[in-house]
Amino acid sequence: MTNALTRREHRASRRALRATLRRRTAGTRLAASCRRRPRSLATVAIAAGVAKTTAAGIANGLRTVAKRLSLAPAQTARTRRTVAGGRAHQTRTVTHWTLAQVARLAAAYKPRKPEYVAATALIAAFAGGAA
After folding, report:
1. What secondary structure does DSSP assign to 113-128, as a single string?
2. Burial class (CB in 10 A: 0-12, 13-18, 19+), 38
3. Rg (CA), the chain
4. Do 32 and 19 contact (CB within 8 A), yes or no?
5. What DSSP string runs through 17-86?
6. Residue 59, exposed/middle/buried by CB under 10 A (0-12, 13-18, 19+)?
7. Coil, strand, or helix at residue 94?
8. What pLDDT was estimated at residue 96?
9. Is residue 31 a contact partner of residue 47, using CB atoms and an 8 Å limit?
10. What is the pLDDT of residues 48-105, one digit of tens each?
11. What are 90-107's pLDDT values in tens digits?
């Protein structure tokens, strides 16, 4: 009886395992959604594994590259969601991009900031592997 867990320890262990499973499932579901249909640049960045704080900045950089390349988004939509989570008070027009377009943008994007360089590599691997 050396490894017998108390009831409280067992519940805590199972709670941690369920939380891990929820996180992993959400990430997989988001990545699959990005592969199926066009999504926003920030959403693709988050699905690729970029931190939420960096995702908004890298999305702005990729939008600038899109203007330079004269690349139009696959579709536009209206939403009340914000990148930071929660609900905005006004609807916003957002652009959705296919993974092939995101791969092209990531290839043309040359950031200087170290975290953006790492994020671009993650996005390129995510978009290139699924396109």
Report:
1. SHHHHHHHHHHHHHHH
2. buried
3. 19
4. no
5. HHHHHHHHHHHHHHHHHHHHS-B-HHHHHHHHT--HHHHHHHHHHHHHHHHHHTPPPSEEEEEEE-TTSS
6. buried
7. strand
8. 94
9. yes
10. 999 999 999 999 999 999 999 999 999 998 887 766 666 767 788 889 999 999 999 9
11. 788 889 999 999 999 999
Tokens representing 42?
């920030």
3-state secondary structure of 105: helix
Distance (Å, whole) CA 88 – CA 100: 29
Residue 21, token pair as written in the block: 């499973």
Angle, alpha carbons 67-98-87 (nearest 5°)? 85
Q: How far apart are CA 49 and CA 129, in angstroms?
A: 14
Q: Does pTM surpass 0.70?
A: yes
Question: Strand, helix or coil at 112?
Answer: coil
Residue 29 has which token pair? 């579901």
